[in-house]
Design brief:
- The complex is a heterodimer of chains A (about 170) and B (about 120).
- Chain A has helices at about 5, 25-35, 35-40, 135-145, 155-165; strands at about 15-20, 50-55, 60-65, 75, 80-85, 90-95, 110-120, 125-135.
- With about 170 residues, chain A is α+β, with helices and mostly antiparallel strands.
- Chain A folds into two domains: about 5-135, Alpha-D-Glucose-1,6-Bisphosphate, Chain A, domain 4 (2-Layer Sandwich), CATH 3.30.530; about 135-165, no CATH class.
- In chain A, strands 1, 2, 3, 4, 5, 6, 7 and 8 form an eight-stranded antiparallel β-sheet that branches.
- In chain A, helix 2 (about 25-35) crosses helix 3.
- The two termini of chain A are about 30 Å apart.
- In chain B, strand 2 and strand 3 form a beta hairpin.
- A three-stranded antiparallel β-sheet of chain B has the order 1-3-2.
- Chain B contains seven helices and three strands; from the N terminus they run H-H-H-E-H-H-E-E-H-H.
- In chain B, helix 2 (about 15-25) runs antiparallel to helix 5 and helix 3 packs across helix 5 (about 55-65).
- Mean pLDDT of chain B is about 80; it is low at about 1-10.
- Classes of the chains: A alpha+beta (about 170), B mainly alpha (about 120).
- Chains A and B meet through strand 1, helix 2, helix 3, strand 3 and strand 4 of A and helix 1, helix 2, helix 3 and helix 7 of B.
């Protein structure tokens, strides 16, 4: 990851996940940037991706439609690629529409910018980093209030305790 | 869009939350979840710490599965249970649920590219 990106990191709002995989970097790049590959892993089964649109250039569209096994398709709102360095790094956001036009996300939407950095690692392997930056804590709180009804607190506390014990 | 579309699988429906709450309201079921957090386990393994008739215990497992927190599969005579990270994420802290979503996504990506790579090697 580049230094400027690292410097802008906020542990309360951002996530950084790093992976090392024993496949060549170009395969990771393709898996992230070609619709036929993205469809295979982006959503958990039994969800499927029925449409995936990728125009891999700054300002280009990244959009997909997802379908649950028994229900209506969701998603479909277009995101916008911000930076594309072939084979090495790309980023996109749902805060902008394609062509960098500001989006008007619903209050419940989680607005984010994601950056994927890919580099070769060891003998033929790949190290990649996924970084997701989110909006201010106020937006986050609003989201929580919308998603979680009053009275559910104890339920979530119990679960949180469980998960922490793992 | 991408992130919250997945999240919406987990969050808003009151039905889902009802089932989740019910599942977590019982100490036996919480203990089972705790055990499954360490990895998949068979019904026999899960039941062994409890002094309970098997049919009653199996009912607990069904409630858990109905809540989306765990899933099971039967192979031969053995039914194995495991935790569904996306189901668990439904009830977690906001950022933690995002983390789990990304982790699940990257897990699937890693499995996919490894498989792709092996296929390529065989061709």
């Amino acid at each position: 990851m580049n230094d400027s990106a690292q410097a802008g990191m906020n542990p309360e709002l951002d996530l950084v996940l790093e992976r090392v995989v024993d496949v060549p970097p170009d395969l990771i790049w393709k898996a992230w940037t070609r619709p036929e590959h993205v469809k295979e892993w982006f959503v958990p089964r039994p969800w499927t991706i029925t449409e995936c649109e990728i125009d891999l250039r700054p300002g280009g569209v990244f959009r997909m439609v997802m379908r649950p096994p028994d229900g209506e398709a969701t998603g479909g709102d277009p995101g916008c690629y911000l930076e594309v360095v072939e084979g090495q790094r790309f980023s996109w956001t749902n805060a902008l529409l394609p062509g960098f036009r500001p989006a008007s996300p619903a209050p419940s939407d989680i607005v984010f910018t994601a950056e994927i950095t890919i580099e070769s690692h060891g003998n033929g392997g790949t190290r990649y980093i996924a970084r997701a930056m989110h909006r201010d804590p106020e937006g986050r709180k609003r989201h929580q209030e919308m998603g979680f009804h009053e009275g559910w607190g104890s339920c979530f506390d119990q679960l949180e305790e469980l998960v922490k014990s793992w | 869009m991408f992130a919250e579309a997945i999240l919406s699988v987990m969050l808003p429906s009151t039905d889902t939350l009802d089932r989740l709450f019910q599942a977590l309201a019982d100490p036996t079921r919480r203990a089972v979840l705790q055990r499954l957090g360490r990895g998949p386990a068979s019904v026999t393994e899960l039941a062994s710490p409890f002094d309970m008739a098997l049919p009653s215990f199996v009912r607990h497992l069904k409630v858990l599965e109905g809540s989306g927190l765990v899933r099971s599969e039967k192979e031969g005579r053995v039914r194995t249970y495991w935790v569904v990270p996306e189901g668990v994420a439904a009830a977690e802290d906001w950022l933690q649920s995002q983390r789990r979503m990304w982790q699940g996504r990257l897990d699937r990506l890693d499995r996919y590219v490894i498989e792709l790579n092996e296929r390529k090697g065989r061709e």
